[in-house]
Design a protein that fits this description.
The protein is an all-alpha fold. The chain contains nine helices and no strands. The N and C termini lie far apart (52 Å).
């Protein structure tokens, strides 16, 4: 494989790459939820939307760029010229940054929820209740089979598929397209990554502060496996808690 240097991307094009896929995904998600929310939880419909639209678009954008850059449509090009570390070093760094994110979850998330409580209440008062994923009483109205499928889908898609695709897309692909080469590159990408999760608007500052150390290490040490491990650990942890919670309904 011929690995050429990745050409910088204009900021306007980068923003389109980041925000058009989730925007289209949200349109599909809303349409599916309006049509099927009585049968399936909107949370599950969101992951169905991501699986069949968001993730494929992001993978396509990566592969298309790799084809133009290296002549081969493969994800392997993202790992070319990456520094190599022993697996336990990568896992240890992933665990340490996961621990930091856990501390920030306890300290910052409640504070941000408190500060934006008024806006949150106003928002959810103006949209159907089933779009609020935190309303467990609505989840309790679905059958046990549906809840098991939702919980397992949450673990698989939010715990593994989503984090891996997003890390390949944001850290492996787009960060290299930034024209800046200082620590501002991972910081900007962390901010854009947080905005990209606009369906969860009231965790913005928490995501930036909690996720930046892992994303910075992945950039500084030139190894996206660090951020992949961190991202998977973070999401799997919350997904397991969610699964246990809905199984008790």
């Amino acid at each position: 494989m011929i690995n050429q240097l990745s050409k910088p991307m204009s900021l306007s094009r980068l923003l389109l790459y980041i925000f058009i896929p989730p925007f289209l995904t949200m349109i599909l998600y809303v349409a599916l939820s309006l049509a099927f929310h009585l049968v399936l939880p909107p949370l599950l419909l969101f992951f169905v939307s991501a699986l069949f639209l968001l993730f494929p678009i992001q993978i396509y954008l990566i592969l298309n760029d790799q084809g133009k850059t290296n002549g081969i449509y493969s994800l392997n090009g993202l790992f070319i010229n990456q520094n190599q570390y022993k697996w336990w070093v990568i896992f240890l760094l992933g665990m340490l940054t996961f621990g930091f994110a856990g501390i920030m979850t306890l300290l910052l998330r409640p504070l941000e929820a408190f500060l934006f409580n008024g806006l949150s209440i106003q928002l959810y008062q103006n949209i159907p209740d089933y779009f609020d994923w935190s309303q467990l009483d609505l989840l309790a109205s679905y059958s046990k089979t549906v809840l098991i499928i939702t919980g397992l889908g949450y673990i698989l898609l939010n715990g593994f598929v989503g984090p891996i695709v997003e890390e390949l897309f944001f850290r492996g692909f787009l960060t290299k397209k930034l024209k800046m080469t200082s620590w501002l590159a991972p910081l900007l990408m962390t901010v854009l990554f947080s905005i990209y999760h606009f369906w969860l608007p009231f965790d913005f500052f928490f995501r930036v502060i909690a996720f930046f150390p892992a994303f910075y290490l992945a950039w500084k040490l030139n190894n996206i496996k660090i951020s992949i491990v961190f991202h998977c650990l973070s999401n799997v942890f919350t997904a397991i808690i969610f699964f246990i919670t809905i199984m008790s309904l």
